[in-house]
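Narrative of activities, Objective 1.

The group set out to show that a structural description can be obtained from nothing but a protein's sequence at a throughput compatible with the screening campaign. Below is one input-output pair from the validation batch, recorded exactly as produced.
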Amino acid sequence: MSPSASVPFSARHVPLLGRWDVVVVGGGPAGCTAAASAAREGARTLLVEATGALGGMGTNALVPAWTPFSDKKDLVYRGMAEKVFNTCKAGMAHIRPTDVDWVAIDPELLKSIYDDLVTGAGAQVLFHTLLVAVEPADARRVARIFVANKAGIAAIEAKIFVDCSGDADLAAWAGAEFFKGDEKGENLMPATHCFVLTNVDEYAYTHGPQMYGGHADSPIHRILASGKYPLIPDTHLCCTLIGPKTVGFNAGHLWHVDPTRPETVSEGMLLGRRMARQFRDALAEFAPAAFGNAFLVNTGSLMGVRESRRIVGDHVLRLEDYLERRTFPDEIARNSYFLDVHCTKEQMAKTPERWNQWRQDEFLYGPGESHGIPYRSLTPKTLDNVLVAGRSISCEQVVQGSVRIMPGCLVMGEAAGMAAAHAAALPQADTRAIDIAKLRRRLLEEGAYIK
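Output recorded for this entry:
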């Protein structure tokens, strides 16, 4: 774990854009529910987003399906998460209202759903705006952040900041300690550049061979054996019918992509687009009934990132917590997803059978089983007016492989936004001084699933 060097940017004269009760950085699933939740609690709230659309992985990155919302008995991801999920399902004619697991995503529809969620709650959104620096008030508090957009560089002040950047940028730049990768600070999980094919034959797609790379009859095995498509790296192939004659793909791994190193992301984007074209051509050859006339219509404008920085919080969510299905007195959400750890290229090359078996057969939850996520995993240990929600919460890498999913980010974001509003209302604006019982009571009133 390493602290990040602070940026002495405050020495420059920049205009103050404004003061808010709560500022949320990052408009992915966690950021959207954090901003909406804080505004719903009465806090004057600003959401700062680097791109031109909300939703992150489910919209800009084109991840084609939600991970399961249920524990095979009940819905686990409720509150705002359930509302987003149900609204998205209702707008997709081929999705049944009763579907809860591995449900397709219409990315354009989802953008509008997030727009309505955030603005409908009363939060303000600032698109195409990048966080560029953080100014501490002292060793434990952030005074203001600096952002850049077409208007130039400006300062933004808030009582409470919620870091939903996905990379813990705000927290790290404020001096918070963080983990990245394994215990040696290495081996980040690989990324994936998702894409969409259209003009697919729906009947052949739905009634033909299984496409998923884990099935023995998937065409991915014949594609790899042919050696004709060298950019397709492995059997990772997940795809979902997201609209009429339109299939979204979460396929292929891009190794050695570090989201905090732009040069590696840039290389990954270039390779990912080339890889998507090879997937189209390979599927047209080896699954012609479904994909013979397929057209590559879109690749993600964001890289599909699985792992980045993880803060060191007041509680590090560990494998034992997951295995023991632990509950916590400060529990603000629950999670039931499996430990979906994507191994590195080197790990897979050394022991492919071990990794495949680990992912498929070990540590799986049974029906009705889940574990809690404590509020203390959202509080950076050395900061008093910053919360973190999403894939960067305080946890071990193996557990991050489970909690990073979009439904989990939605419920963590709602809790973080609500807590931020409560903290902003206190004279000391301290995230640790809030009434946890009140927070949990309010979450339950809004439909959350906690124990």
